[in-house]
Amino acid sequence: MPENQQYERYIGGSPEAERLIFERLATDLLRVQLKAKKRSGSAALHRTFHAKAVLGVENARLRFHDDLPAELSSGFARPGAEYPVTVRLSNAGGVRQPDHAPDLRGAALRVEVGPDEIHDLLMTSFPVSHARNAREFVLFAKAMAGADTRLRKAFAFFVKLPLSVGWSTATRMRRNVSAGARRPVRSLALETYWSRGAILWGEAGPVRYQLRPAAGAPEAPDPSRTDPDYLRRELARRLHRADVVFDVCVQRYVDGRRTPIEDGAVEWREEDAPAVPVATLTIPRQELDTAAARAVGSRIDQLAFNPWNTTGAFRPLGNLNRARKAAYEASSAHRLGLRFVTVEPRRNTLLGYPLRALFRAVNRIVPWHRLPTGPGLLNLMAFRQTLRRHNLIDTELHEAPPAARPAPVPVDEDLRTRRSYDGSWNDLSAPAMGAVGATFGRNMPPVHRPDLFDTPNPVTVSKRLLHRDGFIPATSLNILAAAWIQFQVHDWVDHKRHPVGEKSVEVPLPPGMTWHNIPGGPPEKVMRFAENEVLCQPGGGQPPTFASAVSHWWDGSEIYGGTASVAKSLREPDGRAELRLEEEGHLPLGNGLPVTGFRDSWWLGLSAMTTLFAREHNAVCRALRDEYPHMDEDRIYHTARLVVAALIAKIHTVEWTPAILATKAIDIALKTNWQGPPKTWLDQLGTWLFEAHDLGGIPRTLPDHHGAPYSLTEEFTTVYRLHPLIPDDYEIVDHRFGHRLDTLTFNDVQGAATEPLIRKIGLADTLYSLGIAHPGAITLNNFPRSLQTFERDGEVIDLSVVDLVRTRRRGVPRYNDFLAGLHKPRIRRFEDLSSDPETVTRLKDVYRSVDEIDTMVGLFAENPPTGFGFSDTAFRVFILMASRRLQSDRFLTVDFRPEVYTPLGMDWIDRSGMTSVIQRHCPELASLLPRTASAFAPWRAVQPVRNQGDADHD
After folding, report:
1. What is the pTM of this model?
2. Which residues pair with 589 in a beta bridge?
């Protein structure tokens, strides 16, 4: 048992349960800040407490006494040791009130022991807290938020507070606050400040500390009743004449009754725990009314003091202190513009409940896609609200209980205006969120059943239900749509795999079947492929967790790479902002494959997309250089990356998705995500009533993670297993005359064969050939045959089997549980899944019950809504995650602005789409692109001309 647990008791029974409670309380405090800002009319957020600084200096000194008792000598507290200290003295309220208003006062010290060691000591001018614990602390803050007048304070004290905490608790809190706040304050140099909560003091155990005026401090005049800043003026006069000196004292822990750790409302009386002087704090004589002093004060006002900025030997104790870590981190990040909170308008909150209830009832009778467009859009809105509330599950391992740490370093200024290479620092308050190595989240509770990993045999499932007997085309799309989604998935999700042969999954084969696991290898009775690297091993019935090898953000990492070294290697070697391209604009080669951000599973479609957007990056670079001749090359590169990544997000949102989900409601919904609802009064009114934050489109909102740290999820990965889109054979056609140049298999257009082929036929003919041909339909028995004997990284795999096995082993629920997890009714019969008798027969042959059906099989078997390219169930995950990929991203919300992207960059995104990108780099294709549809719809095919001379003559 850790040493500190003899003093502490965790709310909820465990450190993790307590952490979750404190996270919710921290979010409540952010709302308090917003409320205080609104009430005060301020343009900026202030501290939740101690908003008004009276003094801020950086040149104070802390010196421990030469005769420091041996039992209190520990760590930085050594006899005669002296350290520089930053001091902030303040009023305690969360609103900047006049100094003569009743209030407590506060002191914050930052003791700088060394480059990697500081200690923040926080105190208030009353010996006990008004709150016993963290819950009371937050409820008090919520009740008192914005109470900046006598009438509002009275209403908060005598109405809101009792309703929140009960009458007796409210009475005790009022008594404590009033006792400290009503006492007249002559000078902050003459106040005593108490830590309230306890900290460890090395081997001495728990202590509370105090700051007391040193003996002989000069008196101060009576407090002013008219001067709002008299306390600062008094300190300025005092420091003009002499040093200001305080004694630092500590009270040692006695027992749980007289000196409790967990109850902040109990005073440690000096008759029980005498205050022992241990050090002297000296604020040297100085002038406060100078520009330099004001600059220092402003700098200190930007600091984020936190009692957890310390070392383990001096860590804070008690639930109030443990809550302070989450609360102070969140509050300071919010105040400094590193973290954001979105408050739902009250009308949206109140109307959301009946909206969701109404459509739950309607959906039992009529599915959403059969409703008229208006009600259908409201239904989608209700779906998304429900999913946001219940289907975002955090899987990251968090610090619990909290630990001491060095003071956080300031955010690198460059990272405010550019994406990092690995996805870190997108959320400036949580640098690792969504970065390379971040854990895949969940949209529903996982189901980890190792006993069912091979039941039914995934090879049998593949042969009976997935194998392509004959190509089934998706006639509303072209193959560019298939290439596009793989291009996107390479940016979003990538589970790391062990090297081939190091650690493998073994799938038993049905009787009589063998498999060659390596090219030219012997036949074996098991199918073997590389296992995913596990981040956290399963235990207690929980599944393993996995980290992504690419960032979860929409940051174009498939083009730019996910590390600084890769990204820099892809740029021109002379330091220019452009990406390296060979003659005629093709990707450079290395070991037969292109040198680019992500080249796994490489084929002609991926090559075309990556080549196209690498050229687009270079075009943006040239435009930026021409428009802003003084912009340095590094800034040009990072700005172009922002522009290209945002353009990709826009294309996916308003072009690709409406192409594959071709209904009017989806087209409106996705365009609303990007640019806000249509300008009709009815659409505007509906959005205002039910989800006002969508009125301007997501790029005009603040980042919002909707209650869970941003990540892509295992379920998201599962619904984007869209391999049936890939055909097994391809016609290469000349775009000028319509002549067939070649007919190729998938193996002829993938891997090392890809780049020689695209160089031979050119980007224009590649795009045209893919643009006039159809991808496969996302349905059963349409999995590409070429991917069922696919050579990858020295192994031969059946990708359909791999997809099934990976989904099972990652704990994604089977189809029926998947339905329930997305708030859809479970199916009871195989006939509920498909209306096709042959499909039902095959399902019954493979599965013993509907509860065994694999999720991927169920998604492929569903009869999708009219116009949909994939199932309604997969679409439920999409409803949630499509907007989340935009809403969580700082660079697609609060920092989607000209100051970051440049005016040229914003205009480039606004004016561009997939069609214009293709036209920019292959202008010869302009007449062949669809006139009234997206570039992912089938293109106009040129009719072959037998004799060009005759054609010219005619």
Report:
1. 0.92
2. 594
